[in-house]
Design goal:
- Two copies of one chain form a homodimer.
- In chain A, α3 crosses α4.
- Chain A is globular, with a radius of gyration of 17 Å.
- Chain A is of the alpha+beta class and 107 residues long.
- In chain A, strands 1-3-2 form a three-stranded antiparallel beta sheet.
- Chain A has one domain: Orthogonal Bundle (Arc Repressor Mutant, subunit A).
- Chain B binds a DNA duplex (30 and 30 nucleotides) through α4.
DNA sequence: CCACTATTTGGTTATATTGCCAAATAGAGC
DNA sequence: GCTCTATTTGGCAATATAACCAAATAGTGG
């Protein structure tokens, strides 16, 4: 594997990494419905606002979301809706795993 | 956010996490082309075979790949090709980020 | 059974991530 | 300017990940 290939997969992994957290996935899912401010996301997730803010920074740095300050509040929205479509694929993986587990135990 | 929702996003994140590593992304990409044995993946990635084996276990536990032992070798193949389609989305995110960075510096 | 090869497992150390608290920043309205 | 609210930033302790080496396991062929 050459340097360039290595860099390509490092960069791709960085984007995936940004998505690889329950709270961040929830946030992305929510932003897929409508743009939402930090305070509301904090209430929804039950996490500290500073924690949510950091999660949002991670998503923003990865280029997945963008923000928009209006008055005191900062609204975040999703930049790449294609990310949302991936959830169905994930869901398929989860369902299949659950079925296999079920089959294993019922034998 | 109720317990059930929390669990759902935890499970989804677990799958994303399995994908959120350069070597594992490379492996998934390669398995998308053809099933491949551990030894060849080790050569391709330049990583220790034990390291590759652990990465494969992570992907397998997540339900993304499956294995098939034939003789001394263990071949891995992808179970959910839809994962591969997500790469295009990621690529879009990366290209957009690169463009923005370029624009910022050329001003 | 022995030697050889492919793979997995265990263990250790280094590094990265997370979440909380406290403090800093920034805009709104009196 | 002061105060209140929303957000971000800094710092720290707890936890999770990763990579390497060595050792164990498993199948092959003499």
């Amino acid at each position: 594997m050459d340097e360039e290939t290595r860099n390509l997969f490092r960069d791709r992994a960085a984007v995936m990494k940004a998505l690889a957290h329950p709270t961040r996935l929830f946030i992305v899912d929510q932003l897929g419905k409508r743009e939402t401010c930090v305070c509301e996301l904090a209430t929804m997730t039950g996490a500290d606002m500073s924690t949510v803010s950091k999660h949002l920074l991670i998503l923003k740095s990865a280029g997945i979301v963008e923000d928009d300050k209006r008055g005191l509040q900062v609204f975040y929205r999703i930049k790449f809706p294609c990310v949302l479509k991936f959830f169905d694929c994930i869901e398929g993986v989860l369902v299949a795993s659950a079925k296999e587990r079920l089959k294993r135990y019922s034998k």
